[in-house]
Two component transcriptional regulator (Actinoplanes friuliensis DSM 7358), 223 residues
Amino acid sequence: MLIAEDDPRQAEGVRRYLVAEGYEALVVPDGRAAIDTVRRERPDLLILDVMMPKVDGLDVCRVLRAEYDLPILVLTARSSEEDLLLGLDLGADDYLTKPYSPRELMARVRTLLRRTSRAVTVDHRVHAVAGFVVDPVRREVRRGDTVVVCTRGEFEVLATLAAEPGRVFTRRQLLQRTRGWESYPTDRTIDMHVLNLRRKLESDPARPRHLITVYGVGYKLSP
């Protein structure tokens, strides 16, 4: 695992927690080093501070999410809902505000690793729905020959809907299928992913034909 944290004391504390749980952990002090180390070492998980020198954590998240399907846990002193949603929109998988307990941090790490492991084996079928293709193996969404770039959260929501076209999923169900309800007790997480998917996939995002809102319930993918 990789820890990107510019506070040496906090970085060493996180590293010790991970080592005590049996994980191997590297530490880097800035965002530029985080990007370079991920590209070189390909860690299983990135624990990423937001406020860092050279490149801040949100930019690190944006750059790496475009290149790798890497679980990212963001640590930050920012606690507003807007900051949380921005981190998720850029591709973070979990968001933990400081101060946090070691037990909570380790629980989040274990949950992310379990989700990553399950994602490899749950459903490898390619889904062709509504003029686009969702490929879980390549983690790609394609429209014709064009790859539509999606964040991890957007892809997971779309893949869930595409696996059962026409079925209505509640926001709670989509949270449970993707990130886990216990980590994100807000419906706005899913709403934002659907809004972004409409911008990328619908010919008229204001009048969606495929990513349909079922008012008072949730969403469905209509072929």
